[in-house]
């Protein structure tokens, strides 16, 4: 092999590697979770793999774990996290009821095997508007989420950031 052939092969390999690198990080991301609102599903300081592409043209599904951007128009600026990780509970046009510490979606009891402990909160009803979703942390008694006016409904077009797909720290799918 001559030097030209070797150089040509190295350049092709470099370009292919660069393209794969860019495609990977355009499609996937990694984050470190800060906080306890998703315990026991995802723990504080866990490293999580994100799918950045799934929600470009699609709504999330019930129970997807998502990364959402904070809406700074209705929050306390002293809260440090710019992004939150939560579970999708309600989609546009859904009715969410919390009655006697149980969660109902469209008048049907939601089975929640993933929550840390039974929820303790006042009775509430939410009607999710078009273009919004309702999210909650799995650690219901220690989660700032859509139940609070500090978070509220999540705007699908402006706040939905990524889908959490794999907890690298715990070596498990989310």
Automatic annotation (TrEMBL):
Pfam families: Peptidase_S26. One of its GO terms (cellular component) is plasma membrane. Residues 11-157 form the Peptidase S26 domain. GO terms for biological process: signal peptide processing. The active site is at 37, 86. NCBIfam families: sigpep_I_bact. It is a single-pass type II membrane protein. One of its GO terms (molecular function) is signal peptidase activity. Belongs to the peptidase S26 family. This is Signal peptidase I. PROSITE patterns: SPASE_I_3. Its EC number is 3.4.21.89. Keywords: Hydrolase, Protease. It catalyses: Cleavage of hydrophobic, N-terminal signal or leader sequences from secreted and periplasmic proteins. It is found in: Cell membrane; Membrane. It is an enzyme of class 3 (hydrolase). It comes from Clostridium neonatale. The lineage of its organism: Bacteria, Bacillati, Bacillota, Clostridia, Eubacteriales.
């Amino acid at each position: 092999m001559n030097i030209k052939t070797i150089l040509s092969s190295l350049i092709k390999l470099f370009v292919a590697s660069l393209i794969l690198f860019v495609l990977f990080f355009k499609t996937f991301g990694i984050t470190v979770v800060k906080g306890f609102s998703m315990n026991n599903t995802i723990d504080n300081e866990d490293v999580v793999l994100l799918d950045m592409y799934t929600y470009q043209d699609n709504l999330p599904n019930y129970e997807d774990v998502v990364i959402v951007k904070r809406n700074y128009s209705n929050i306390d600026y002293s809260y440090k996290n710019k992004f939150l990780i939560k579970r999708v509970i309600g989609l546009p046009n859904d009715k969410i009821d919390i009655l006697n510490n149980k969660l109902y979606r469209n008048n049907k009891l939601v089975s929640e095997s993933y929550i840390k402990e039974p929820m303790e909160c006042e009775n509430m009803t939410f009607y999710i508007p078009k273009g919004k979703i309702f999210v909650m942390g799995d650690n219901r008694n220690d989660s700032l989420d859509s139940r609070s006016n500090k978070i509220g409904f999540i705007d699908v077009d402006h706040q939905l950031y990524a889908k959490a797909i794999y907890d690298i720290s715990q070596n498990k799918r989310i």
